[in-house]
Amino acid sequence: MSVSTHHVGIPPMEIPSPVPSDTSSSTRQGEQDSPIVPRRTVRAGRSPVRPLLRTSFRNFTGTATVIVGEAGNKTRPQTQFLVHKELLTSASPFFAAALNSTFAEGMEQTVRLPEEKPESFEWFLQWLYTGTLTTQPTASHDAALGRSTGYIRDHGGQIVRLGTSNALSQHHPALYDIHLDGDLRNHAGSPKYFLLLDLYALSDRLLTTPLSNHILSTIARLSESTNSVPTPSDTWILYDNIRDSSPLRTLILDLFAYKKTDKLLETHKDDWHPRFLRELVVKLKRPGPEAIEIHSLVAWRPRSWSSSRACEGCRTLLKPGISGDKCCSCEKAFCGECLRRNGGGGVEGLGMGGGLQHDGSGCKPWMGRGMCLRYHEHEGVEACG
């Protein structure tokens, strides 16, 4: 389903409706015995920077045992991991406080996480050792890729074998993304949002802010590349297992507000989390200052009536010779008065209806320069470059 929209000075465009991820998992079904784990408050200084492994391995002298899950629990079976201690303590203030203490964890060099899922901790370890959640291409991957994708015809009519990552990235970037994402997607190519939400909850409790930011960027990228949004069961993870002040909630709400999700919200057979629905309604009725902040604005003045535009905030026509601002990306224009009213972060008076609409036809807050500013957390360290 799609809807055609038209704005002054902007050619009509098609906005496809997003779909929910085909893969969903909820702590509501099959995990009702799982406790809601609060965010750990242990803070051993600011979130550290991951060491460069190539030059750091030579200095690693010890290992620590991390026991995840609990015996007899089917959803969280007890699993033991042996991890380089220096890597754990350099990346996680939680592990630094535990393993460098004089308590039992420090004496035994063993940390128990009975409430966590082994699968989530495996993903944490992948990020810990590689710095990414995606799959790096290898010769074995390329061989498997050749068997699964075969050949395609390129734009020039030539038959191209997709047996290597380079060929796939050049001729079929969508398949290449699926190849790199690996287990972050299901067999149909839909994002496993539930997996990333569970991992974010774990990262939040371990105080690994860089991983949390990486997960936020990954969710935004997957949502945009697949035109999908989380499922109802995902919202239960988001609101039952993740802290209220998490920027992840802001991102998910933005995805639903800016994408055309009205039919999805209305017709999905599963129940959405009531707090998610309430916060989404409030957001749609009272959009925040990001309605202007998401744009890359430059000074602009229409030279003639044919180039004039209406202000997106108050709908006042910006006449020839009247200065305003225009977005370099979507070409939407704003008058000086609306920009001044919104400069302090307030939304009062921004537009006749009290706020700019989340029409999704132009810039999006989870893309471009606003991603880090709006969603990432940087506790005393430099922001993303």
TrEMBL record:
SUPFAM superfamilies per record: POZ domain (SSF54695)
Region (Disordered) residue spans: 1-48
Signal peptide (residue range): none
CDD domains: BTB_POZ_ZBTB_KLHL-like
Positions of the BTB domain: 62-137
Pfam families with a match to the protein in the record: BTB
Record InterPro entries: BTB/POZ_dom, SKP1/BTB/POZ_sf
Coiled coil residues, start to end: none
PANTHER family: BTB DOMAIN-CONTAINING PROTEIN, BTB DOMAIN-CONTAINING PROTEIN-RELATED
Name this polypeptide is given: BTB domain-containing protein
Annotated source species: Cercospora kikuchii
